[in-house]
Design goal:
By secondary structure, this protein is mainly alpha-helical. It has one domain. It has four helices and two strands; from the N terminus they run E-E-H-H-H-H. A hairpin with a 5-residue loop joins strand 1 and strand 2. Helix 2 crosses helix 3 and helix 3 runs antiparallel to helix 4. The radius of gyration is 21 Å and the shape is flat. The chain starts with a strand and ends with a helix.
Length: 86
Amino acid sequence: MTINPIGATSNAAQPQFTGAVDKVLGSKAFEKVAEFAGKNSATFNAASSLIMAGVLRPAAIMALPAKNEMIKRTMVMQQLTQLHQL
């Protein structure tokens, strides 16, 4: 139970994903990634940018609804071509 600024009490619902978050943050893999990121921040930033640009962005485009499947494929190929030109 929490008290808000005007003095009323509320029974705010607790988030249900805390167990999953604790598992991820407490894992040895996360610890190793965090240690690597701390020691090699430039390399970690470059690698995470590459993953976001090369994997997550095309995946998000593929998830979008399109009237024509060929348009969707063209959009993904343009993104990958731009990434390759870097």
